[in-house]
């Protein structure tokens, strides 16, 4: 189910003035016994253990491609957006050459953030602690009381730490700390085909509407990421009341949801997506539905995408970026310790959409999967419930069952990659298989120079 990744590349040389940590400063835990993809079992300690969480930050988040922002958030030099890569705060900005740059949001002097605003436009990033100031290219350009430093002090060696690789796909910006990564497009693999069903409707691409919504949940980030990769199974039970609200007058959607046919895509890189095929009921914004030219989409994307992942479903790009095509919702699950996550959510729409259609999609997403949305509330309650009891001594030792659809993955001849039936844990098993693989693979920063 998973591929083997061999450590490669030398450790990044330390800049002048940098310190090296001893290799044994943090424990490296073998997680092989915690994830049984062949048997479909998972040890719930993966949601609760602090040492495992610290290892995730350095072996899962640091080497992976992580979603940062949408290109529509940057139009002129100095536009910036602050976010996180794991728990590392970063600044995404457009430099004077109109290149997207990403920097660690931490002053090289005493470590305070050099940008405390969420979003805006600036000429420089200046630390409010002692006034060190950095240009849009990350270079240190101003040091108060410069004469107080030794003659050998060189500002050129104390610029902001930059994320070494930043790439975009269909307007989505990703970055990785890995100095020698597999390219983003290669890392996405077949997942790109499923993403295009949401992001490649026309040549104009997508734009962001309505800003970014943020909220905090008590729950491990993997609970959310795995659900969006693999879990249509919960819809009937968890969202029954919400589906009743959205059902056409006089109709009950429950049976059609329960017995809905579809496919689930699972990938060795941990990505996953599930979607009904030929859905009879469409639970989307009717204004958007009526505006959409499905004939043109069939010509652009093909029948398989229009009759599947375009119309509904859920997906996760490993490790922590998820999206909902029918809502235009993209979101990131920021880890905030083993027991807490911070959810950041955007609404993206086709750039060609007229204003009234954009607004209909924004409101629909807000009412369904916004912070107080009728579906989002159900999901958050489930994740928090799982987390709330997982620290119990006996509870924490009882394995969880991920056996639905065991060994059912195959090439169905219509959708790229390996798929199973819609009701399956296949993508969940692949998600945790990839997590296990990375957790047991030394990252570039652990290699000897």
TrEMBL record:
Q: Where is this region: Disordered?
A: 1-23
Domain (Rieske) spans 65-163
UniProt entry tagged with the keyword Transport: no
Report the domain of life of the source organism.
Answer: Bacteria
Low complexity composition bias: residue spans:
7-17
Entries under Pfam families matching the protein? Rieske, Ring_hydroxyl_A
Q: Extract the InterPro entries matched here.
A: RHO_NdoB-like_C, Rieske_2Fe-2S, Rieske_2Fe-2S_sf, Ring_hydroxy_dOase_asu_C_dom, Rng_hydr_dOase-A
Any idea which UniProt keywords this protein has? 2Fe-2S, Aromatic hydrocarbons catabolism, Dioxygenase, Iron, Iron-sulfur, Metal-binding, NAD, Oxidoreductase
Q: Which Gene3D superfamilies match?
A: Naphthalene 1,2-dioxygenase Alpha Subunit, Chain A, domain 1, Rieske [2Fe-2S] iron-sulphur domain
- Which CDD domains does the record cross-reference, listed alphabetically? RHO_alpha_C_NDO-like (cd08881)
* PROSITE patterns reported for this sequence: RIESKE
The protein, known as: Aromatic ring-hydroxylating dioxygenase subunit alpha
The upper taxonomy is: Bacteria, Bacillati, Actinomycetota, Actinomycetes, Kitasatosporales
